Amino acid sequence: MKTILYILLLNMSALSFAQDPSLFENTWYLHSVIINGQSYIPPSNSEVPFIPLDFFENSSDDFVTNVCNSFSGLLIYGNQSFTIQDYALTLAFCDLQENTTFEGIYLSFFFDPTTQDPYSEPFLYSIVINGNEKTLILENINGDKAIYGDQILSSENFQNLYFAIHPNPTKNELFLTSTNTSGNLKIKIFNIEGKLLSTQTLEFEKRVSLDVSQLSSGIYFLDIEDGNGNSTIKKFIKE
């Protein structure tokens, strides 16, 4: 009887720490950081077009985010919370001063200034759904917040442009399909660190293919813009 009760308690504990699937299903894009009550809006320029945050299951890293540098690591999950157990941070330099300044602000949300390591206390998170839009709110031990959306902040017409990409993951070729756009598309490919790798313009009519065979294995982003300036971001994995 004690054994059965112990197993039940373990199962209840595991269930209580189950995470919201949306945390892993979306790439989150930083919309603002609130430090000591002051709100900071991320830059959007040629060097840093957006600031993504991804959470992974069954991967060597549990999360990764980046401005000019990549910040990644392992997490221990709690009830609507996580603790950074181990981490890696690259040491590159931004070309633009506004990116350098904002990167320092953004990383200060995660890092304890007294230890210069990530806060040892849990980060709380919540996901708010409003229609087709999702918002992820992280909160650190000081009550500071980092607010992300599943859509790019600067893309006012994001919801008007619909694309599907397949296969994903892919090895050599990636297909884009859409039923509500045609004409010339400007397509940019960014790596996980936000670096622009290529730009091309293609004539589109319901379906087009992209050769990605030269890319190394990893996570990439497609920035797709139509002739009216509407744009959307799609994530894909190159095997």
What does this structure look like?
It holds the Pfam family Por_Secre_tail. This is T9SS type A sorting domain-containing protein. With about 240 residues, the chain is mostly beta strands. The protein folds into two domains: about 20-150, Lipocalin (Beta Barrel); about 165-239, Immunoglobulin-like (Sandwich), CATH 2.60.40. About 15% of the residues lie in helices and about 50% in strands. It contains three helices and 16 strands. It has helices at about 1-15, 20-25, 95-110; strands spanning about 30-35, 40, 50-55, 65, 70-80, 80-90, 110, 115-120, 125-130, 135-140, 145-150, 165, 175-190, 195-210, 220-225, 230-239. The strands form three sheets. An eight-stranded antiparallel beta barrel has the order 1-3-4-5-6-9-10-11. Strand 15 and strand 16 form a beta hairpin. The chain is globular, with a radius of gyration of 20 Å. The termini are far apart. Residues about 1-15 and about 155-160 have low confidence and may be disordered.
